[in-house]
User: What shape does this take?
Amino acid sequence: MSPRSVLMVSAVLVLGALALQQSYSAPEPDPKGIMQKKLGYTQAVLRAIVHEDFDQIWGNAASLTALSGQADWQVVKHPQYLAFSTAFRDAVQQMADAAKRKNLEGATLGYMQMTLACVHCHRYVRSLREARLDDPASGALALSWEPDGAVAPLAAEVRR
Assistant: This one.
C-alpha cells in the first residue's frame, strides 16, 4: 500500500471516528434555544403573511412543526402542557394548510390561534414556576429541566 493510500485510509478512519463520537454525545437540553428558534420562525411567518408570501408561510410552519417535535420542546410533563402543545401544532397545521390553498385570511387566523396558544402556555409555565408548594411529596407537578432528563419537583428551584 502506498504512503498516500495509507494517509487517505487513516484520514477516513479518523473522520469516521469523530463523526461517531459526535453522534453518540447527547446534546444538553436547551429550552431557551428552542423558544428563540420558535420566535424567529413566528416572526418570519408574520412577515410572510404581511407580504402574502405563501411559500414562506408554509416553510416556516413546517419548521415550527418540526421544532415542536423535538424533545427539548416539552419542558413540563403534565396533561395541560400537552394540551397547549397540541393546540399550537393544530394552529400551525391550519396555517400551513391555508398557505397551500393561498388563503391569506385562513393563514392569518392560524397565526393568531398559534399566538394565543403560545401566550396561554407561557402564562401556564410561569404560574408553575411561581407556585410554591409546602409539601413536594404531595404529588406535585414535575418539571423536566434537568440536563440528564431527570424530573425536578415543582417546589424545587427551577433554572431559568
User: Anything to note?
Assistant: The chain has one domain: 29-153. Residues 52 and 104 are 7 Å apart (CA to CA). The domain at 29-153 is CATH 1.20.120.10 (Four Helix Bundle (Hemerythrin (Met), subunit A)). The first strand starts at residue 76 and ends at 77.
